[in-house]
Every structure is written in structure tokens, then in C-alpha cells.
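Researcher: Please generate the 3D structure of the following complex. Treat every line as part of one assembly.
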Amino acid sequence: HHPNALDALSQEGLSEEPVQQEREAAGSGGEAAAGRRATGKGKQLPRGSRKKSSSKKKSKGEEEEGWGESESGSSESESGGAERQREHPFIVTEPGEVARAKKNGLDYLFHLYEQCREFLLQVQAMAKERGDKCPTKVTNQVFRYAKKMGASYINKPKMRHYVHCYALHCLDEEASNALRRAFKERGENVGAWRQACYKPLVSISAPLGWDIDAVFNAHPRLAIWYVPTKLRQLCHLARSNSSAGGSVLTAANELPPPPPMF
Amino acid sequence: HHPNALDALSQEGLSEEPVQQEREAAGSGGEAAAGRRATGKGKQLPRGSRKKSSSKKKSKGEEEEGWGESESGSSESESGGAERQREHPFIVTEPGEVARAKKNGLDYLFHLYEQCREFLLQVQAMAKERGDKCPTKVTNQVFRYAKKMGASYINKPKMRHYVHCYALHCLDEEASNALRRAFKERGENVGAWRQACYKPLVSISAPLGWDIDAVFNAHPRLAIWYVPTKLRQLCHLARSNSSAGGSVLTAANELPPPPPMF
DNA sequence: AGAAGGACCAGTGGTCCGTA
DNA sequence: AGAAGGACCAGTGGTCCGTA
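Model: Done. Output below.
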């Protein structure tokens, strides 16, 4: 809507396969990963992020090889105009491990959350400068801004889908790393790993009375993310079950306000 | 949507003209006015709040007198089944002054904000009990709840319209009271008084860098209200103007981040 | 005219499900 | 089959404007 100084940075060219560079940027980072550089410089596209040619139907033989089925060259760093429609799927990787063969690793996944945070910080700075309402969370506005800045690989469904995985990474990196190693070892897929991230978070919330919002809000990098519905429900359920041996429950007073502080 | 224990309290009968009682409840109150009693008991309806007969067209002579034009009896405490469609308009009253003649006073206006706060607290308690997302502001959900609890005289456009007036009352009750007396003295209407409430708030925000959000958030009773758009714009404008004599301004760096701390 | 509030609307949070 | 993300939808913040 409103043009501003940052518009000039949008929609730039894409560097080819900056995997090693990305490896450094996407190191399983807690506080150390912050404010490294300005976001949106187009240098953080990992493992084959490309702009999709806007609804252009490839004209039969023009560049038929290059995206999709072409199995030649497991490394995708050649064939200049390669284009693809979606991000590569995630696989379970250990901390520091580089995903290969048209896959993205979990360090990269978590790095996307750091990028979103940087986009939010920019949106907040702009809002304050303009006297607009200032978002405190990663909102639609931030996703729109990320897209405008060329980070087309960031989208809302994906980020919301894995928020609780990132939460575990933030809150207990050791536990998160152990889980990643275990699930890689077992050859589990990303969906199974993702599911397994819920339980440790419920445990983390228990000492705070299963108040998962309090858990998120207490961590500066996490506070900018909405608590996922399912995680909230699981914490609520755990709180309910914890009081199962208690007194008679009524509809109006179903749950004990201060739960055991174990 | 979800029935709960509080449903039973909704839609009750209305006591007639509890003005004196209301005077006590609606005393121009800062902290002292809080948590006096449970909200929604139907006892706080002021100066002739009535349920409107649901789209019933009064059947010619049934109760033709009683609401609207009937000028008989300036006090409205008689004629049992009196009904009316809208709240009486506000007039500028001094602190403690009771409005008469089908008008509502400003103590009552401010009291509505306290009521909304109590409704929010109830909604928050219910959300926590149910494991739902917990609102931190007076949202549509809270207005819906207020209506369900029989507080049909509370509605969103009205509350949003006068938020900044309530803000001044919270932040500088002396200044607010002085303004009320001055505008009553001059015979100004409510609209003029409302307009005049903006300027003192801009001044209050100045030492905080005209950050009106920070001003609201620093006050517990105010933090639950969204900052009105116009107030935010006025503060932004004041910040801009304060730097008018400064250095050359660019589009990307228009405003001085730390403004004068006068 | 001054004012109260029903009701509308653009953009939100949330996530399903057609897609690859 | 497992997974990425366009696009939809119910309910939001915001306030206009038909009403009295």
C-alpha cells in the first residue's frame, strides 16, 4: 500500500545454492544467531529456493529438464535457469547436518523462524516511524512483507505448522537435539518428529501450571509466535489429567487453579 | 457457543432507575472503583436502560406513552413498562454530578469502561479454565459476552468512541475533572468536550517520546483498551512537528527517535 | 443540529485440502 | 505414502452512516 524506502530491495535475483553459507547462517542458534545482518538481502535462500516463473507454462522443450524429474546431478548447483515450484521437503537432520538430494534440514527450518523475526523487527521499526499500530507477533502483515522482500519460501501455513518444533529448540536445545538424533537414527519422517515435539513442551509447561502462553511469553524469541492450538489443547488436557485423583469436579469449577509444582 | 455456568445469569429483569445507587457505583473512580462486586447482576443499569422489545411493533395504543415523546414527568421512575430504544445521550457533567432529564453523565460513561473491564476479567477466567486463547484486550468477544450478560447498553462503537476520554480520566483525573468543569461552565456539548480530551493526552505522551501505546500499556486499566486511531495519529503528528527545526529529513529517516524530554 | 449503535467491510488468524 | 502452501472462511478491529 504505502511505498517506502525498503521497497527498493524487493524481488531481486537469486544466487545459486548457497548451501555452505547457509550452513553457517542456519547453525542451530540460540541467542548467538541474532541480528547477524539485514534480512531480505536474497542471500539466505537455501537448497534451491527459486522464484516460480509467474504462471508461465514452460513451452515444450524450452527448459524441460532443470526442475522436477531431472535426476542428473544430485547436486543442484548447475544448469543455470533451474526453477521449481515448491520448497524441498524437510527431513530429520542432526544439528549441523547438511541435507542433500532435494531435501531441507531442520537447522534451515529453524533459521526460517529467525528470518521471520528479523522481518517482524523491520515491520515494527517501520510502523513506529509511520505512527502506525505496531505488531507484537508475526502476523499476516509480516508474511506479506517477507514475500515482498523476496523471501518467497516463507509462508504462513509452513511456519505455523512447525512453531512448536521451533519452541522446543528455543526452550531446551539439548532435548531438541537429542530428539532429532533419535528420530534420524530410527529413520522416522518429519511428520513423526514433529508430533514428538509436543510432549517435551507439555512437560516444560507443567511447572508453570501448564500455562503454555506464559512459557512462550517468557522467551523473547518465542513470544512473537502465536501458541499453536494443538499445543494449547495438549497442555490443557495434561492439566486436567493431573487433577484426576482430586476432589469432585463441577462444571463451573472443573480444574484446580494452582497445579503441582513438580 | 459453549454453554457455561455464567449463562444462567443472563437476561434478567431490570430495576427501575437506580440512580442514587448508580451514583455511588459510578463515582469518578480510579483504583477505588475496582472489583466492587460481580458484574452483570443487572443492578448497574443507569438512567433508564431498558431492554428493547424485540422488534415488536407497539400495537397502537398499547403503551403509546412511556417511551420517546412522552414529556410528562421529567423523572422517568414511574410508568412501569416504559421501554426505549437507545441509551440517553451523554451530557458534560462535573464529577459527582447526576445527569437529569433523559441524559447520562460522564461518571456513568467512565463506569461503563470499568464494567467492560470486569467482563473482560470474567472472559479471561473462563478462557483459562477452558484452555482457550486468553484475550488481553476488550475484544468483540467481550462485547458479545457483555450483551449476553444483559448489559445491552454496552456496545463497541460507543466504547471505542470515548476511549481517549476515559484515558484522560485514568491518567490525570485532576486535569480530566477540570476539563469537565470548564466545558460544562461554557455550556459545550459532549462532542466538543470529547474533542478537547485529545490534547492533554498528547502532552502526557510527550515525555515518553509521544509513544501513546507505552502510555496506555503503563496503566493497568488502560492497557486493556486499543489506542484510538486518531489519538495515535495526533501523537505521531506532534512528534513530527517537534522536530521541525531539526536537521535535513529524508524519507527513510524522517523522525528523531529520542525526542525532547520536557 | 448532536448523538447512539446496527451493521458493514477490509484485512486477520487459522488451517484445510487440492496439489505435486 | 508424506509434505508444501494457495486459498478459503469464520470471526476481528474499525467505524460509517442510516436512524431517532
